[in-house]
Amino acid sequence: MDKKKYLKNRFKRDFLQYSLLQEDSLPAKEIAEKLYGVIDLNWLIGQGKQEIESLCNKHLSFEKVKVEGKLSNELSQELGYDLKDKIIAEYQNYLDSHSTDEITTAIISKIERSVELQTWSNGIVNMQEAIKLLLERVKNSSRSYGNLYTAPISENDILEKFNKAKENTLLERIQGNNIDDIIEYRSALMEYVRVSCENMLYAKLKEVYASIAIDATFECLQSNFNGLSQYAQELKSSIADCETNEEWDKEYNRLVPTDFYYRNVENITAEHAFHMILLQFFAKNEEWMIKNELLVNGELNVYINQDNIRVQNLLSQIVENI
């Protein structure tokens, strides 16, 4: 075997060991947790609950039981029985303004980005299992939000309280007894609206998680990593065994200076040192990376790319430059 082939094979072995088939990889469960962490729908929960309070303050504030700033024993027309339906319709419009498809698309993009980064950090060995565990976690989240339904006060109870609140006999007007009924009716409306809107919010969250779980991207990623695993095994089998050549190894260490990083970077691993070599190549060959769609909007797009041939081309391009 000549020196050129020896150096190329040495790099291919390092690429397998420190990039594709990393032994020092996080367990699939931990990778899945990191992938799940990018979903983060707390903004929708927070804004959704804030909107409920805003609608309640708008339509059901305590001021609604007053006339000219004073408590009145006459039910305001603004507190009609159909007010609850009006508020719920407004909240539904609010939820509809946050398109499930758009939320899903944005989250899938974040997951893909995280998959790319996690693969650089951990290799491909545990990625298929991690994606499987991620999908299970997403489906469980969808089911969990579906189970959060709380039955609101019955509409018959609200109607009964409404009828009591609007009754206004001469004696009630004189004694002011109807004020308590109006306040109780307003409180019942408030409870009904809050519970109903929260149920709608949880149904929205269930829908979003369900939409994420059935996205075709996951099937593509699984297929992609299956192809990468096959490629890694084929690459491993194609590298011929040969005796160690100390002189050529010195030449390799000059061309691929991972030892330099070991000496000068604290707590660096072999994988990280090798990745720094790869990043140097990517930076020097940015135009080629962009042309081959391995760099998109300044971000690496190597492992989530559905065309495994591009990974092969990447490795070929690197070894040709050794």
Short description, anyone?
This protein has 322 residues and is mainly alpha-helical.
Structure notes:
This protein has 322 residues and is mainly α. It folds into two domains: 3-25 and 218-320, no CATH class; 35-216, no CATH class. Helices cover 72% and strands 2% of the residues. It has 15 helices and four strands. The model has no long low-confidence stretch (mean pLDDT 90).
Structural class: mainly alpha
Count, helices: 15
The first-to-last residue Cα distance is: 16 Å
Largest sheet: 2 strands, antiparallel
Essential attributes:
2% strand; 4 strands; single chain; mainly alpha; 2 domains; two-stranded antiparallel sheet; 322 residues
Topology:
Blueprint: H1 3-20, H2 28-37, H3 42-60, E1 66-67, E2 70-71, H4 83-96, H5 100-122, H6 127-146, H7 155-166, H8 170-175, H9 178-213, H10 216-238, H11 246-255, H12 258-264, H13 270-284, H14 286-291, E3 295-296, E4 299-300, H15 309-320
Antiparallel strand pairs: 1-2, 3-4
